[in-house]
């Protein structure tokens, strides 16, 4: 069969020359930090969804209580569709069920121990309901559940994100995954 793509490859790999990776997890688990490190060492185009939403106004206004923009999912997906279709995107967002399943070849869910996450969120100025809701989200493993409900289990990878050593190991793990994706045609 050689290296020619089969119909199956087109289905599984979406016909992309390079994979798309989503890095997700509760706010503060280290998505942006990991993506910056990763994008410096692998040929993926980093897209921070929070920044994109602000920059392109892909929202329905400001939420005072949460101090954040109310995402407009349709506008966001329309904005991303063509870029993702080309492949080679590294997306960073604290949710995963809003995206079409076909977009991603790997969904990384970062996880942080409660006390570590609490300190990070407080250091960032979170308090009140925003702090409580985010802590509960991590304790209940909401994002991991979401990922497992929204994507094939084989595509979902939960990684610890408590320390700089974890981050370095995660960059290595994802880099190795990328190499094997490129060398394995099925
Ligand atoms: N693996 C890690 N080890 C130690 N500190 C980390 C790690 N990952 C992130 N941090 C620190 O935690 C804080 C939050 O990190 P970061 O902004 O990357 O999280 P995030 O998941 O992208 O948050 P958000 O969803 O709000 O954008 C930063 O101060 C960062 O330096």
TrEMBL record:
Family matches, as Pfam families: AAA_18
EC number of this enzyme: 2.7.4.3
Residues annotated for ATP binding in this entry: 28, 30-33, 124
Signal peptide coordinates: none
InterPro entries hit by this protein: Adenyl_kinase_AK6 (IPR020618), P-loop_NTPase (IPR027417)
Keywords annotated in UniProt: ATP-binding, Cytoplasm, Kinase, Nucleotide-binding, Nucleus, Ribosome biogenesis, rRNA processing, Transferase
Region described as LID: spans on this chain: 123-133
Enzyme type, top EC level: transferase
Chain's role: Broad-specificity nucleoside monophosphate (NMP) kinase that catalyzes the reversible transfer of the terminal phosphate group between nucleoside triphosphates and monophosphates. Has also ATPase activity. Involved in the late cytoplasmic maturation steps of the 40S ribosomal particles, specifically 18S rRNA maturation. While NMP activity is not required for ribosome maturation, ATPase activity is. Associates transiently with small ribosomal subunit protein uS11. ATP hydrolysis breaks the interaction with uS11.
Designated name of the protein: Adenylate kinase isoenzyme 6 homolog
Organism: Klebsormidium nitens (Green alga)
């Amino acid at each position: 069969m050689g290296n020619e793509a089969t119909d199956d490859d087109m289905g599984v790999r979406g016909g992309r020359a390079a994979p798309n990776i989503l890095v997700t997890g509760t706010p503060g688990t280290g998505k942006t930090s990991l993506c910056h490190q990763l994008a410096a060492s692998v040929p993926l185009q980093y897209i921070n969804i929070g920044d994109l939403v602000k920059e392109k106004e892909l929202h329905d206004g400001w939420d005072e209580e949460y101090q954040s923009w109310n995402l407009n999912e349709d506008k966001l997906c329309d904005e991303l569709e063509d870029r993702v279709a080309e492949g080679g995107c590294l997306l960073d967002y604290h949710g995963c069920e809003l995206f079409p399943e076909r977009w991603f070849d790997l969904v990384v869910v970062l996880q942080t121990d409660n006390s570590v996450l609490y300190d990070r969120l407080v250091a960032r100025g979170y308090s009140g309901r925003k702090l409580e809701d985010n802590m509960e989200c991590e304790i209940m493993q909401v994002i991991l559940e979401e990922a497992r409900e929204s994507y094939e289990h084989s595509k979902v990878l939960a990684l610890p994100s408590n320390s700089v050593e974890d981050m370095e190991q995660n960059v290595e793990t994802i880099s190795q995954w990328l190499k094997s994706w490129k060398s394995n045609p099925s």
